[in-house]
Structure formats: C-alpha cells, structure tokens
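Q&A log
Question type: sequence-to-structure
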Amino acid sequence: MKNLILTPIFAIFLVTLTLNSFSADCSISLEGNNMMQFSSTQLNFSSSCSDITIKFKNTSNLAKEIAGHNVVVSKDSDFDALTNMVDPSNGMDEGFLPSTPMVIGKTPFLGPNETYDLKISTSKLNSGQTYVFWCSYPGHWGIMKGNLVLN
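Response status: OK
Response body:
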C-alpha cells in the first residue's frame, strides 16, 4: 500500500522536474550593464523548443538616449553587414537598424531597469548555424556580443 501511494507522488515529481527543465531551455534571462557587458556571452537553447525567449533587462543607470542597450539576434555571417547598417536615423525603437531579413529578432533600446522579452520562433533558426546576439548602440557591439546556440 505504501508503494502505491509513493509511486504516483514520485511520478508527479518527475513530470514536474522534466517540465521545469524543458521550459528553462526555452527561456533565458540576460542583462546589460554600465560596463557595456552582457551578463552572459553564450545563450544555449534546446532545439526542441518551438520558440525561444530572451528575457532582457538593462541594469545600467544611463538613459537610453545616452547609452541604451538592446539585443539583436542574427547569423554570425551577417554581423559585419548589419553593423555597417546601424544609423540613428532608423530610430531607437528599431535599434538604429533598417528593416532587413538579416535581423532574426531585436528589442528596442532600453533605459535603466527596463525589460523586454524577445521571443523568436525556432523555425527561423537552423541547428548547426552560428548565431550571435549583440547590442546595436554605436560602439557597443565590440564588447556586447555573444553566441546563441541551438542544441
């Protein structure tokens, strides 16, 4: 009788643990700080996710007009072309970037303690392709750049 009670409880525990582990691979928190650094230089997502989410927070205390931070996701091979397209005339909400299919996803520039959840369908990503995430504020991408990996 004791085993009959423990077995369903153990099964519920395993299902809960599995679901929590699965969801953790589909959503990752990322911060940008005063030192023009992201809190991570690599974001690993599960290829089993239908969507991935980067929960971005700007922890800097500088106004977004002075030195805001954002997150742009692109193929590594498109990075140089995209940084050459950065132009403030494109607008802060557009990350100073024109509309282009080379941008897989991007957030607007954020000011102090602002947050934004960037959701990207994994149908836009290919396993084995090299992706980067970076800040498109002029001069920031030299330091604020990391790898996005779909495992």
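Response note: The domain at 26-150 is CATH 2.60.40.420 (Immunoglobulin-like).
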